[in-house]
UniProtKB/TrEMBL annotation:
Species of origin: Entomospira culicis
Domain N-acetyltransferase: 5-133
PROSITE patterns according to UniProt: GNAT
InterPro entries: Acyl_CoA_acyltransferase, GNAT_dom
GO MF term list: acyltransferase activity, transferring groups other than amino-acyl groups
Matches recorded under SUPFAM superfamilies: Acyl-CoA N-acyltransferases (Nat)
UniProt name for this protein: GNAT family N-acetyltransferase
Length: 133
C-alpha cells in the first residue's frame, strides 16, 4: 500500500525539516549537534541529496557524492522508524540511479544487512579509518 510519498531532490529550504527528522534518531546526533550542524549543512549543499516527503514532513533522505565520474558514493541513508518497511530507502536509491544512469553506485555502510536485503550483495573493498579526528 502506497501512502503517497513524494521523492525529490533536497532544497535548502528543507534544512529545518530534515534536521528535525534526524534528531529523532539516536545515532544521528553527530550531524545535528550544535557543534557540527553548520558543517553538515555545508556537506548537504555540496552533495546529491534526495528526500522522501509525506504530508509536508521529511520521513527519509539519502546523501551521496559524485566522484567526478568514477562512481557515486552513498554516505547517508535514513528512514524515520515509523516509515521503515515501505521501501523508502530503496526508492531513494532508485531515484539516484535514474538520475545518474551511467554511474556505478557504491554505499558507505555500517548496516550491510539492510543493503543485502535490498539485493545489493556485490562487495568491492572496504573502508578503514586512517585517523579519527
Amino acid at each position: 500500500m502506497s501512502l503517497g510519498f513524494l521523492i525529490r531532490r533536497y532544497l535548502l529550504s528543507d534544512y529545518t525539516r530534515l534536521f528535525a527528522m534526524m534528531r529523532l534518531e539516536d545515532d544521528w546526533h553527530g550531524y545535528t549537534d550544535p557543534l557540527t550542524a553548520e558543517r553538515y549543512q555545508r556537506a548537504l549543499e555540496s552533495s546529491i541529496v534526495y528526500v522522501a516527503i509525506l504530508d509536508h514532513h521529511i520521513v527519509a533522505y539519502l546523501r551521496a557524492r559524485d566522484d567526478d565520474g568514477f562512481g557515486l558514493y552513498i554516505y547517508d541513508l535514513l528512514v524515520q522508524k515509523e516509515f521503515r518497511g515501505h521501501q523508502l530507502g530503496k526508492m531513494l536509491i532508485e531515484e539516484l540511479a535514474r538520475d545518474y544512469p551511467n554511474g556505478t553506485i557504491y554505499v558507505m555502510s555500517d548496516v550491510d544487512v539492510y543493503y543485502h536485503k535490498q539485493g545489493f550483495t556485490q562487495r568491492e573493498g572496504s573502508i578503514l579509518v586512517v585517523r579519527d579526528a
